[in-house]
Amino acid sequence: MKILRDQRGAFAKLIYVDPPYGTGRRFTFDDRLAPAATRTRRDARHASWLSMLYSRLAVARDLLVPNGVVAVSIDDRRVHQVRMLLDELYGDEEFVGCIAVRTNPRGKGLRRHVATNHEYLVIYAKDRRAPEVMRGPRLGPEEAASHYRHSDERGRYAIHPLRGTDHRRRRDDQPSMFYPLFVDPATGRVASRRRRPFIVCVYPEAVGGEQRDGVWCWGHERASRNAHLLFAKRSQRGVWRVYRKTYAEEEPTLSRATSIWTDPVFSYAAGKRAADTAVGRHVFEFAKPVELLRRLVEMTTRRGTHDVALDLFAGSGALAEALAAANAADSGNRRVVAIQTRDAIDVASAAYSAGYRTIADICRARMRRACAPVKMSMRTYRVVPADPAG
Length: 390
What we know:
The chain has helices at residues 2-8, 36-39, 47-63, 79-90, 141-147, 220-225, 268-279, 290-300, 318-330, 350-353, 359-371, and strands spanning 12-17, 64-74, 95-102, 118-125, 150-152, 155-161, 181-183, 190-191, 200-202, 230-234, 240-247, 260-261, 308-311, 335-338. The chain is of the alpha/beta class. The two termini are 21 Å apart.
């Protein structure tokens, strides 16, 4: 990671972290990234795990582009520690969300009292106010038909108020978002400047109906540039309100993700089936679900922008397969960088019998298989400790 930081600087739009968190009381990790002082601390049971993760999350922030995000997969035993680390390193104001993902519908039977059937995806931004940090997930056919209920010559579209709907957003807080728009009362068309036939002046109402005290959710320049997407309707009270259109072909997503994901394709069973197909049966037992990671990739990156996703603990290479699937779906040109240590494989395992000798071997094989159909090139580098003698 330090090599990437020194040579590439800030380059990643998404950094995905799936740390080894099912380690129990003892945690061992060949860690040359954390300072020596922290590697030898024995003052707490989880000190080595926290040191390992803290040092990586700290460097990860330097690798993010200004509108980049870091997403950490974690279970309910560790989620509070991860939140504390990210609050310290990124700031609690950069917290984007904590998504509960149902990864085991029947629940794990490892605990005596509660069968846990979910994990968390904790997301922070480098700068939450930056443009295009994250968007909602892509809609399926049924969801799209329900969401985009209107149509015109351009296609199906949804309607949203142009007025900001957060009651905390007021004119005093965002004066640049308070300005007049002008309506043609005969057609409902909207313009950013007064001219005939745009003669009705409309200001944003605050949520709750207070006149001339709210804000628009677009700035004046954007409203002027996209006036063709705006229209106005007169309410039964005689008050003109401005709305905006979002077309399905231009924005095939939800406006925001929800905080609970329950689709069966996000389960570990689905992740194992995908891994079995990619690298062989029982080669990698606990692979992350590809569709879960694909949703994350599509929410945080965009096609045609050469966005880069960085996987700090690549494992079987599930994120690379997810990114390749996203590129195949929308003809995107996203790229992925995967980091995986050369952890040796047990000689008695199915993976060893299949010819793999390290976890990195499995990751490379899956990445090659995923990249080939979408013609993504692949390069492999091995990082070795520097020779002290020079």
